[in-house]
Amino acid sequence: MEQPPSMFSYRGTVIQKIWWQVVLVTIYTAGLVCVSNYVEGLEFKFPQTLIPVLGVVTGLLLVFRTNTAYDRFWEARKLWATMTFNIRTLTRCICVMVAENENTKSKIVDKVSAINLLIAFPYATMHYLRGEYTYDVGKLKMLISHIPKFYNQPLEDQEEEEFSGKSEVNSKKEKNKGASQPHTQQQPETNIPVELSYYIASYINSVAFADPKVADGSTISLMNNALNSLLDCLGGFERILNTPIPNAYSVHLQHATWLYLLSLPYQLIGTLNWFSIPAVGLATFALLGILGIGGEIENPFNNDANDLPLDDYCKAIREEILQIIGHHIPAPELWISPTDNPLAADARKPASKMIKLKEDEVRKMLKKGANLNLLQTNSSDLKSVGVDGCRIKDAANGEELRSMLK
């Protein structure tokens, strides 16, 4: 389990970005204090009426900025969870609800091919959101190398990359390295997640027009709804990525914050004197830290320490699905009938023997087993309050049991 963040942690904090600004404001404050103390006739003793006014306004702006950025971060996480759910739904439908009665080997190959595209979908989405519009990157290259491509890179671009010795992915990674990138509306060369949705839809379509025994209408409808939801999640990601916080608001917040910090020393020197230096430094660290956090989590799709761990999410989906497709899902009679299926706890009879009994006997046995389990559970609970199992069995009725609890 991941350890909770420590107050002494440095990686992933905004200190790396704001430390020089804090130092700059602290030096500025120290200079004003020195001038006030050593230059005769020049004292900075301003009334403190400006601090509450600017402080309230700046605080409200910072809170709104941080909340807006976190809403975007949390919305992205919820959309990814929804995407994971729909990938699981499609995988379950393909593995279990699409029959393999005839041409079993061919059906298995078709299923695994479609499921591999479901594994590729989150990888393609991750690279698309990071501006890596290419088929040849990481796990995605291995998963979709066999499918026809919708986009071919222009010859002049290929020659330019060969001449420079840099691939498109490497150049994108260098550009994305470091701080969160600003939101810019770019026209991608190709939208690989959308391409994959067409191939997945073609598989669903082939199943729908096959023998009705392969998959019924409700299964086809469920698969289509899950695929539509995947594209809806992709649209939500694009909305977060391509809708920046208005520039006028961001610039005004920067102006208000710096105006407050630069005017703060003039109003503290008269009362705190030399202690105004650490006071202003702490205030600068707090306010610029909040401002920096908003900028860090505004775009949660990059590789920064405070962004969503999309690589881990993709890996988890891949490993989970690979564990499933490596096994054949057995028919119900194979996992209901074994002798070690404890259907009736009191009689310890397996399901294969329970089937041979009359309906009344089965229901009576199941009811008795349920009551026994409930009594055992209550017994363990009562022991925790000092009532042993013998007294429970000796209790004449429910009222006596309740009195023991009291």
Automatic annotation (TrEMBL):
Residue spans crossing the bilayer: 18-39, 45-64, 272-293
Location in the cell: Cell membrane
Disordered as annotated region, ranges: 161-188
Compositionally biased region (Basic and acidic residues): 163-177
Annotated Pfam families: Bestrophin_2
Keywords (A to Z) from UniProt: Cell membrane, Ion transport, Membrane, Transmembrane, Transmembrane helix, Transport
Any GO molecular function: chloride channel activity
Primary localization: membrane
Membrane topology type: Multi-pass membrane protein
GO CC entries: plasma membrane
Polar residues composition bias: residue spans: 179-188
Protein name: Uncharacterized protein
Organism encoding this protein: Orchesella cincta (Springtail)
